[in-house]
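Case study 2.
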Amino acid sequence: MDDEAMYLVHAHLTAAPGAAVPDDAAALIAGCVGDGEAVEHVVVHRVADGNAVVGVFLLAPSLRAAEGVAEAVCRRALVTYERLGGLTLDGCQVPFVAAYYEQAADLAATGQLMPRHDPSTDDPFHPFC
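Prediction:
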């Protein structure tokens, strides 16, 4: 497990007309974690029109593996519990964190990003201008 990282995967659930996300949905989903699926925590946030976003925090060796485990756990819960029967899984992915990428794209921000170097000079930090 030393080569695993913590991921937050969002699973998007859509409620059929008249269906609702039960109050214990997070516990039901967490109860469907299988052996070897390193899910640490499940949380459910209700959104518009009775739909929900499920946050699955888990350890996995890659982003793809994390999304796959979260999807498998959610699908297992939807077929296992009748109370979740009016819900469908519309997607499972790690959310895009815009603030991180905005900072990474800001060349004036401090951090590990370095300006491109000009190969025509001996200065590896000389910016193209």
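The chain has a mean pLDDT of 84.
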